[in-house]
Amino acid sequence: MANQLSRLDQVFAALADPTRRAIVMRLCAGEASVGELADPFDMALPSFMKHIHVLETSGLVQSEKSGRVRTCRLSPDALLGAEDWFQQQRAIWEARLDRFEAYVMKLKKEREAARRPSKTTSKTTKRKGS
Amino acid sequence: MANQLSRLDQVFAALADPTRRAIVMRLCAGEASVGELADPFDMALPSFMKHIHVLETSGLVQSEKSGRVRTCRLSPDALLGAEDWFQQQRAIWEARLDRFEAYVMKLKKEREAARRPSKTTSKTTKRKGS
DNA sequence: ATGATTGTTAGCCAAATGGCTAAGTTAAAT
DNA sequence: ATTTAACTTAGCCATTTGGCTAACAATCAT
């Protein structure tokens, strides 16, 4: 029944909300209580707590309660996991660009070879222009 | 009236769905038509088109129609923008760790200085244990 | 022991999301 | 001139999301 969201799904969904991104940014600077975190936001506490809960189930934030105050801290692993995803995509993207560039270079050489049908590439025969 | 979502909101929301992440991954390898993109997914075309549309309004994907086929390509800027966010947070996080480490080092020195109240640090007086 | 702080639970509500089908529309193929 | 291919639009539906209030703990301070 439970829809088994992947970790990445939850992390990206958590970060899609500006309130939650602000919480994460705040927690990057150090741990804080729910009250401290909620203070800057014009929002009822129960609404705010929902955001905290989303962050916790996404794995981005951990918290523990001592006395009547719950202290939240960032757990950087989930953040790094998401960052990894970008880096992998960028790697694939850049590999593609490299291949494309290689392809263009090949075309260029072939065009040149077609224009000058000698077998060896002589550096002395430099030509410029179309 | 229009709720003016920030670009980051839209990018992260777009990436929170596994179908859409798969589309982005596919497009990292090169442009493709809607039909080609939709093929691997067991989903009605109109549903799939909604995903494409989400990706387009997030800025992650651009598309253009020629004839009856719409070709989609990744626009890497939005992707890089989101990656930047992670890197900024990580920078803050790491700065904090550095500060913490510096703090621990300071404590350590003070403890040591308190234990051995001479002004100069003599390397000869090495001591081990608690 | 009372009262103030600091969450927490329960439940309501409007809007957004992510799926569907059915019925267009436009370009290419025959 | 039809038919087929490749989207596109319109609209339905269930679930999720993100806000609220009201009432309930559970501590800490006095």
Helix content of chain A: 55-70%
Whole-number average pLDDT of chain A? 86
The quaternary organization reads as homodimer
Poorly predicted spans of chain A: 121-130
What is the N-to-C succession of helices and strands of chain A?
Answer: HHEHHEEH
Strand line-up in the sheet with most strands of chain A: 1-3-2
Radius of gyration of chain A from the CA trace?
27 Å
Briefly note the CATH topology name of the domain at 7-78 in chain A. Answer: Arc Repressor Mutant, subunit A
What gross morphology of chain A would you assign? Answer: rod-shaped
Which two chains share the most extensive interface? A-B, 30 and 30 residues
Largest sheet of chain A: 3 strands, antiparallel
Content-based structural category of chain A:
mainly alpha
Strand residue content of chain A: 5-15%
The CA-CA distance between the termini of chain A, in Å, is 67 Å
CATH architecture identity of the domain at 7-78 in chain A: Orthogonal Bundle
